[in-house]
């Protein structure tokens, strides 16, 4: 998928009351910006625990200029606070998480409390309210995880999928979106390489010369989530078709001609990322722009496939090193420029 591609048609959020957990993060801010530009929601609530980030975000998105905006300080660890925030909400976008792999390895209980118990709190709070749908951001690291962050997000995904069984036939619907590294997000290797190149360093640190990753822009991620909100039935894990890139090509694109220094893989880090495993392939559907891993309680059947869907071959695996779509250096630079301009 090229940097100019969209990820499907986006539905109408006019009149909806939407809450975004972790709304002051990179994705949350781009989501808020996009919704304000395209729709007229009744309420748009930014839920996060960092008062400084909320203050800074209010300088960009002033609630006096956008009367639908609400800033709500709270933590997904606090179920009573979540219940208060969900009053009158019909749609939830869950982005709050501890995301740094090394930090999770060294602070496991903090990761579990936010990513796993926070997910459980949200499911229970949504079931006890009038929320109609929740879509949660997952990660490629949740597929066959080898680090705690990935394992915590796998557990989170399982909690949201199972939430559909707990909420009953007419209750809240829960689904997940799984994608790879985001160009321009906080913690990405892209700004690190850019800073080192600007400083004129003699060497760029590379963990492993064979390493590959999936890449997506923030806007592509937001558009994909918006599209999934309109098509979700509950229990799906949506996976966009996106590009891969070798870490060495990434370094060369951002710091051309600079020598690479191999420093070794960090604790909990993978050589390649997987978004759909061979075991997941048995319940995976393919569409033009994305895949859908159907929930265990709604196994896909050739007789009841959604329009535009086909089953993937048994043993299919969607991974960054075997992807058919690869980014060239110029394409990555275009993605970075577009991300910086929006």
Question: How would you describe this structure to a colleague?
Answer:
With 342 residues, the protein is an alpha/beta fold. The chain has a domain at 17-180 and 216-242 and 275-318: NAD(P)-binding Rossmann-like Domain (Rossmann fold, 3-Layer(aba) Sandwich). 36% of the residues lie in helices and 20% in strands. It is built from ten helices and 17 strands. It has a ten-stranded mixed sheet, sandwiched between helices. It has a three-stranded mixed sheet with strand order 7-9-11. α6 links the parallel β5 and β6. α1 (26-38) crosses α8 and α5 (108-127) runs parallel beside α6 (148-167). The radius of gyration is 20 Å and the shape is globular. The relative contact order is 0.13.
Please outline the helices and strands.
Blueprint: E1 17-21, H1 26-38, E2 43-48, H2 51-60, E3 69-73, H3 79-85, E4 91-94, H4 101-106, H5 108-127, E5 133-137, H6 148-167, E6 173-177, E7 181-183, H7 189-199, E8 203-206, E9 212-217, H8 218-231, E10 237-240, E11 243-246, H9 247-254, E12 259-262, E13 274-276, E14 284-286, E15 290-293, E16 310-311, E17 318-319, H10 329-341
Parallel strand pairs: 1-2, 1-4, 2-3, 4-5, 5-6, 6-10, 7-9, 8-12
Antiparallel strand pairs: 9-11, 10-15, 13-17, 14-15, 14-16
Helical content band: 25-40%
CATH superfamily of the domain at 17-180 and 216-242 and 275-318: NAD(P)-binding Rossmann-like Domain
Continuous helix count: 10
Q: What global shape is seen? A: globular
Overall pLDDT metric: 91
Please state the structural category.
Answer: alpha/beta
From the N-terminal CA to the C-terminal CA, the straight-line distance is: 19 Å
Low-confidence stretches: 1-10
Share of β-strand residues = 15-25%
- Write the element-wise H/E pattern from the N-terminal end onward: EHEHEHEHHEHEEHEEHEEHEEEEEEH
The total strand number stands at: 17
CATH structural architecture of the domain at 17-180 and 216-242 and 275-318: 3-Layer(aba) Sandwich
> What is the CATH T-level topology of the domain at 17-180 and 216-242 and 275-318?
Rossmann fold
CATH secondary-structure class of the domain at 17-180 and 216-242 and 275-318: Alpha Beta
The largest beta-sheet arranges its strands as 3-2-1-4-5-6-10-15-14-16
> Taking Cα atoms only, what radius of gyration do you get, to the nearest Å?
20 Å
The biggest beta sheet reads:
10 strands, mixed
